[in-house]
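Replying to the earlier thread about multi-chain prediction with a worked example.

Input:
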Amino acid sequence: MAANDTSQESPPGERRSDRSPWNWLLVVPVVVPLLTLLFNKDEPRLAGFPAFYWMQFAFIPLGVLCTVLVYRMTRKRG
Amino acid sequence: MSTEHLTEMIVFGALFLLVSGMGFVAARWRRPGTMDSLDEWGLGGRSFGSWITWFLIGGDLYTAYTFVAVPALVFGAGAAGFYAVPYTIVVYPLVFLVLIRLWSVSHVHGFVTPADFVRARFGSPTLALVIAVTGIVATMPYIALQLVGIEAVLKAMGVDGHLPIVIAFAILAAYTYQSGLRAPALIAFVKDILIYLVIIVAVLYIPSKLGGWGHVFDTAQAKFDKTPVPSDGILLDGTNQLNYAMLALGSALALFLYPHSITGVLASKNRNVIKRNMAALPAYSFVLGLIALLGLMAIAAGIKPVVTDGKADTNTVVPLLFDHMFPSWFTGVAYAAIGIGALVPAAIMSIAAANLFTRNIYKEYLRKDATEKQEAAVSKLVSLIVKVGAVACILLLDPEFSIDLQLIGGVIILQTLPAVALGLVTRWFHRGALVAGWAGAWRPACGCCTGSPTRPRARPTSEARPTS
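Result:
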């Protein structure tokens, strides 16, 4: 699909084509990393890292996963 | 200057010269027919694919100051400084839909700046002027702060005085003038490869020498326990949890309102490039998190910051940690990574500010019939002026003051959120109301940064802003 990227652009009148129920998935990585109650603790430690640190590192792949899903699920609609 | 840092200086100098050469050659990279238009000079021909965009935006948002200030904050306060990680996780899903829409509109209508969009959306050159001036004012101290990153490295090498910084910025100004956005795009490759290399080596090597990660965290906690401040520690205490979350969210909201972030986005060639990058850019957040932990490693290694004029400069802890732990040639590589890390965003920021001036002030008010060639010429010239201004900020003002300015910059750039971001979603706002809202916000916005009793607590915020 990389070859004809530009031909997929929607014409200006069709900007609403961004809409998709999959977009709601983006709320997850916006909200979860802000809920400090989830991860503000020392135990359990992972490889010496307190939970506070390794859990926040773990939110990075979570965010990537959600964003990739939204990208792939909405791609054909463009 | 002493000979003990000689190897470091030679490696640092060699890498610095290498990227300077690349900056000048960049004008011929992906050779355009002509450099005489803003699309070519200021947006690299709007042709960047996924990889270049990833390096460019990554180099743009995660800067020298980040690598120095975030661990410095963690060194001083502990967990609170780690807010940079949730901040940079939250930001991409938050702006995902907004940015692809902004890209589409800008692509169709040939917009170069966020203010161009606002002008067309609301039919108001005045509102666009307000947005442009806000963008320029908020960006200037950002550029100045990049110099703080270089300065920290130079201090750690025992180099004092401002002359090296002036020379570095003169070279930077020259190749930005010649190559436009292509220069930072090309240099960003070197910068990011160096950064990844240094950080991967640092997180594997340093903790093993210090007795393991568990020991690093425990030693840091022991140090924080001894301080009289209750809010520091390797975890957040009850009261600063909300601050932590709000700081992350507020910073995320402000990030893509900065003109230099938008410049990187508009330079990409299509929507899918942006979507892929929103998914791939968090790789940098991972590195940023590891960089933040360098602050704790510095505690465990017993690093004492450089003291100048009786004031301890915690920005020097990471350079000193490298100096303390690595052989000197690798310390030189690490210092070069930080120094080059300052050049990429400084170049993009000055280009973004120059484009704002050209499109929304020069063409709008001074010379309505300007040709593309004239636009490009004015932008090039303004990019020089902006850099001179940034150097003057550092030379003439107390660095503390530019940090305050930068903090205020984050607040005032948020005042453009209704017009730029919400304008993409709805036409509902009236341009008069947006101008009034912007004007009304100045007093409380500046008041909260300068006059209120919260200021001492607000201070670490500015020092840690990872994007500066």
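DSSP finds 21 helices and two strands in chain B.

Feel free to reuse this layout for your own posts.
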